[in-house]
Amino acid sequence: MIPRYLVDFDLRQLPQLHTEVIVIGAGIAGLFTALKASERHKVLMVTKKSLLDSNTRYAQGGIAAVISDEDSPAYHRQDTLIAGAGLCSSAAVDVLVHEGPDGVKDLIRLGTEFDMEDGHYALTKEGAHSQRRILHAQGDATGAEIVRALSEKTKQDPNIEIWDDHFVIDLVTEDGECYGALVQKPDGRRVFVRADATILCSGGAGQLFRYTTNPDIATGDGIAIAYRAGADIRDVEFIQFHPTALCYPGAPRFLISEAVRGEGAVLRNINGERFMERYHPQLELAPRDIVARAIVAEMESTKSTFVYLDFTHESEVTVKHRFPTIYDFCLNYGLDLSSDWIPVAPAAHYMMGGVVTDLHGETSIRRLFACGEVTSTGVHGANRLASNSLSEAIVFGRRIMERIEQLPGTDRLATAGQESPKRKDYAIQPIVERKLKLQKLMVRYAGLKRHAKGLEKGYDELKRQLTIFDTLLSKREEYEFANLLTVALLTTQAALIREESRGGHYREDFPERNDQVWRKHTVFNRMNGTTEGRIDDV
C-alpha cells in the first residue's frame, strides 16, 4: 500500500558524500544531539527550513527536572507514570528522572540562561506535577532561549556542517541496516549522504490537524520515512491536544502555557461559570486530556467555539513579568491577559507515539537512531506529563552518543535503488487542497473524541488519497503531504484497533479504560504488519 521509497532513484547515478553522523532536524533534540556528536565526530545537520524553525522554539512552560531539595526522582517518576496511564516503560522513566538534572546542567553549560530568584533557579509547577520542578527562561520563552543558546553553539562548531532548506526524502537501507539518507537540495538536485550513524530528530505531526499549536513544518516526516524504511512505529493513536490555545478571529492557535493555570488562572464557560470542579478534583491542573475533553464538553453544552481563561486576579506587573511572550502576543490582538478573559480552545499539540527506540535511542534498524518527539521511548505512555518532552530530548540525546561510540565502522556501500514501477507524471489535485481535506478529516474523525463509525469513514476517505504514491513527486510540499498521509493512516488505524479510552485516546463507544485487555502497545511495521507490544510491569 505504501511504497518503500517516495521517488525513483539509482544510487549509482547520484552524487554521494560521506559524513560520520547525519542529524535530521533542528529542534532541541537535533541541536543538542549534534553538539554531543561533534565532540568526537564530523556531523552534518539537515533541516528543511532553518535552525530556528522547530516546535522547541514555541515551548513556553519549561523543562522538567529534579532540582529542588524538596523534590526527588521518585516523585518525578510517580507523576510521569500516573500521567502515562499505564503505558509508560518504567525503565525509560527511570532513565529520564535520574539523568534529567545532568542534562539540564549540560544546557546551562552550553549557554542556556534559566530564570533565577534569590540566587536559585526559579521553579514553577504544572498540571499533574506534585512538586515545583519546571525550569523556565524569560518567563515563558523557554524553548526560544534553549534554541538560541544551542543554535549559536552549533553555528560556531567546526565539526558541524549545516544544510538549511534541504529535504530528506528517504533513508537508504539494506538488509536491516541504515546507510544514510537521500536528500533533496534547494535547487531540486538530489544527493546520497552516506553516514556511519543516522539520527532522526524531525519532531512531531501537529499538521495532521486543522488546529494545532505546531508550526507548519510539523508534518510527521520522521515517522513516515522510518516506517517506509522498516522501523517499528508505536502508539500513534495517542495525540495530546493542548487544552488552551488562543481561539480568536484572525489569530493563529497560539499556545497559552499550562504554567498560566499553574499560577492560578481558572477556566470559565461562555456564561462565566467556572466548570472544572464538575470534571476532576485537580480542577484546572488535571491531566491535559481530561481538561481538553472538559473544555469540549462545555463548548458543546453552551453551543460555543471556545471557553475563557481568566487570569485577572493577578496584577498587571506580575503577569507581564511571568508571561511576557503570551502577554505581548495577546495584546497584538487587543486582548490584555491581566484584565481580559482570554478565549481558548484545545488544539493538537504533541504526539506521544512514534519510532520505537531502546534506552540508547536505537531503532529496530541498525545504525538508525531517533530522538525527541519523533520517538516512542516509553517515557510518555498514553499521555505526556507537562515539560517532560524537553528533558526527554536531552537525556536520550546524550545516550545516543554513548551507543554511537560503540558502533563499528562501515566500508560497505549500499546499492539500493528504486527501479520499477516507474511513477507517472500526471496532474494531481493541488497539494494545499489535499492537505486541508486531510486535516479536516482528522479533526472530525480522529480528534479529541473518536468512535468506530467515524474512524472507519475517515480511514476509507484517507485511503482514496493513496494515488499520491504512484505520482512523480519533486517538491517539498508533495513529500510532506505523502508523509502526513502515511501518519494519518497509521494514527486512524491505531485508534480503530484500540477499543478503550486511555490518555490521549478517547473512544465515545468505549469510554472506559480496560487494563485487562488493552494494557499493551499497538506496533506497526511496513513488512510485518500490526503487532502488540509488551508492557514492562510498573
Helix and strand arrangement:
Layout: E1 9-10, E2 16-24, H1 28-37, E3 43-46, E4 63-64, H2 73-83, H3 90-109, E5 116-117, E6 120-121, E7 123-124, E8 134-135, H4 142-156, E9 160-163, E10 167-174, E11 177-184, E12 190-200, H5 221-229, E13 233-234, E14 239-246, H6 258-262, E15 266-268, H7 288-301, E16 307-310, H8 316-322, H9 324-332, E17 342-351, E18 354-356, E19 368-370, E20 375-376, H10 388-405, E21 417-418, H11 431-446, H12 452-463, H13 476-497, H14 515-518, E22 521-525, E23 529-533
Parallel strand pairs: 2-3, 2-12, 3-9, 12-19, 18-20
Antiparallel strand pairs: 1-21, 4-8, 5-6, 7-8, 10-11, 11-12, 13-18, 13-22, 14-17, 15-16, 16-17, 22-23
Helix pairs in contact: 1-4, 1-10, 2-3, 3-10, 5-13, 8-9, 11-12, 11-13, 12-13
Descriptive account of the structure:
- There is one protein chain.
- The protein has 538 residues and is of the alpha+beta class.
- The chain has two domains: 9-238 and 352-405, FAD/NAD(P)-binding domain (3-Layer(bba) Sandwich), CATH 3.50.50.60; 243-347, Succinate dehydrogenase/fumarate reductase flavoprotein, catalytic domain (Flavocytochrome C3, Chain A, domain 1, Alpha-Beta Complex).
- 32% of the residues lie in helices and 19% in strands.
- The protein is built from 14 helices and 23 strands.
- It has helices spanning 28-37, 73-83, 90-109, 142-156, 221-229, 258-262, 288-301, 316-322, 324-332, 388-405, 431-446, 452-463, 476-497, 515-518; strands spanning 9-10, 16-24, 43-46, 63-64, 116-117, 120-121, 123-124, 134-135, 160-163, 167-174, 177-184, 190-200, 233-234, 239-246, 266-268, 307-310, 342-351, 354-356, 368-370, 375-376, 417-418, 521-525, 529-533.
- A hairpin with a 2-residue loop joins strand 10 (167-174) and strand 11.
- Helix 2 (73-83) packs across helix 3, helix 3 (90-109) packs across helix 10 (388-405) and helix 11 (431-446) runs antiparallel to helix 12.
- The longest helix is centred in the last third of the chain and has 22 residues, at 476-497.
- The chain is globular and about 65 Å long.
- The two termini are 37 Å apart.
- 53% of the residues are buried.
- The model has no long low-confidence stretch (mean pLDDT 92).
